[in-house]
Design brief:
- This protein has 453 residues and is an alpha/beta fold.
- The protein is built from 15 helices and 8 strands.
- Strands 1, 4, 5, 6, 7 and 8 form a 6-stranded mixed β-sheet that branches. Strands 2-3 form a two-stranded antiparallel ribbon.
- The protein is flat and about 95 Å long.
């Protein structure tokens, strides 16, 4: 071999047997994941295992594999299993063992509810490391595809039409079976199989229609309360002013399912939502509250609503339940999709300063307009007027401008760098747990970057 090249010998024998620790650089994310997991209170997970049966892999090993996998874009349990053979980092985390994909998938599904306390523990570790102290938080949501195709969605109108068609085919197949005339039966048709297939589909459609009726009933009760509240307010205004308003007011809600009400046969709890490409996808709405100074996710939840307007209550509730040691939240920044008078007062009642844009800001404003101080509102001004005033001040503009540079990059990195664009699990509870897992993976990745910067 030429002396210009580094000599290599795959049959090289070692005088001392190497350890897996020798193969991984000191400053590596995999080491940091193991370090963080080692500091967590795993008592709830460990005590759930019984002493019977074969020995199990320690929860620390499996949890570290999931955290590192999600942080590096490896979400499939089969790919994680394969990586424990192929990747030095995964092999280091698994301590040279190889949990099979079924073990990893079962562990992930079984302990999803335990991730929320671990999420909080990791935030406390951030605080102890001097990386996190709450102050200003940005809130936003992103649509993430469900583990289901939109083509498996069924509308109420189409379900009724398909039900009639299948029932007609079942009746026809039963008549053919009773006649027992082989000449009338098309070649290759197996009547029992065809009947079984259609009866199964009819059962699935019946179940789907029941779920749609249940949703329609829930919507009716919700809309009925809103209708009665608006009607009462209208009557009070008419009585106060002595003038009768034109029109009949808002239309009374109807209890029946609507023609376009849809349910997905694969994941019935997911919803059709508008996507960034002006199309529609079967999705969930993943919400994240991000600390402005560190870009760490400090609150997360998943919604079935494509509209963000109803997510402030849940987000504020999550934030107010964070440990006092993390500090006090001063301000909440959110875009126009979250604006409503109720949301402003929700923040005010929790002693959080709302910075929620009441509308889309114009691009390329004139130079001097951006530095003008708005006229101060009167002392008796309501919370919405005060918020709009603060948003127009130079200080308020500067603070609100940080929203785009905090929460939106987090979603961009999660989707385009970590590669998380679709949930692996199905159902709202499971999807919420998986979003907690993604949030934890992001936080560990971010903590590693903050510590080494």
């Amino acid at each position: 071999m030429s002396t210009r090249f580094i000599s290599t010998d795959r049959n090289q024998q070692y005088i001392f047997p190497p350890t897996i620790d020798d193969w991984l650089p000191e400053n590596h994310l995999a080491r940091f994941v193991v370090e963080i997991v080692g500091q967590l209170d795993m008592k709830a997970l460990s005590e759930s295992y019984t002493n019977g049966g074969s020995k199990a892999y320690h929860p620390e090993i499996l949890l570290s594999l999931l955290f590192y996998g999600y942080a590096t874009g490896v979400f499939s349990s089969r790919k994680i299993e394969k990586a424990t053979f192929d990747s030095v980092a995964f092999r280091y985390i698994s301590a040279n063992t190889h949990p099979d994909h079924d073990t990893i998938a079962t562990f992930r599904k079984r302990f999803l509810k335990e991730l929320k306390p671990l999420f909080t523990q990791i935030l406390l570790l951030c605080h102890e490391m001097g990386l996190l102290k709450l102050g200003n938080v940005s809130l936003d949501g992103t649509k993430i595809k469900a583990n289901a195709s939109k083509h498996h969605a069924l509308s109420w109108e189409y379900a009724c039409k398909l039900e009639d068609q299948l029932q007609s085919e079942v009746d026809k197949l039963l008549r053919l079976a009773e006649e027992a005339d082989a000449e009338k039966i098309p070649e290759g048709m197996n009547i029992p199989d065809e009947l079984s297939r259609r009866k199964d589909r009819l059962a699935a459609i019946t179940n789907a229609k029941e779920k749609l009726k249940q949703r329609a009933d829930e919507r009716y009760e919700r809309e009925k309360k809103e209708y009665e509240t608006k009607k009462k307010q209208r009557e009070e205004k008419e009585k106060k002013t002595g003038k009768k308003f034109r029109g009949n007011g808002s239309k009374s809600p109807e209890p029946e399912p609507r023609k376009k009400d849809q349910i997905n046969l694969t994941d019935e709890e997911s919803r059709i939502m508008p996507s960034s490409g002006k199309g529609f996808e079967q999705s969930y709405n993943a919400q994240a509250s991000v600390d402005v100074d560190t870009m760490l996710i400090v609150g997360s939840h998943v919604s079935q609503s494509s509209n963000d307007k109803k997510e402030i209550d849940k987000a504020v509730c999550v934030l107010k339940n964070l440990p006092d040691e993390l500090g006090e939240i001063h301000s909440l920044l959110a875009d126009a999709g979250y604006f409503s008078s109720e949301n402003v007062y929700t923040c005010e009642n929790e002693k959080i300063n709302p910075y929620i844009s009441p509308g889309r800001d114009k691009h390329n404003e004139p130079l001097f307009e951006r530095f003008l101080n708005p006229e101060e509102p009167p002392e008796c001004a309501d919370a919405i007027t005060m918020m709009q005033y603060k948003l127009k001040t130079p200080e308020g503009r500067k603070l609100y401008a940080k929203r785009k540079s905090t929460v939106e990059p987090v979603f961009g990195i999660i989707k385009n760098v970590m590669g998380f664009r679709q949930f692996s699990l199905r159902g709202l509870d499971s999807v919420s747990g998986e979003w907690d897992l993604v949030s934890i993976a992001w936080n560990i990745k971010r903590m590693f970057a903050l510590r080494t910067s």
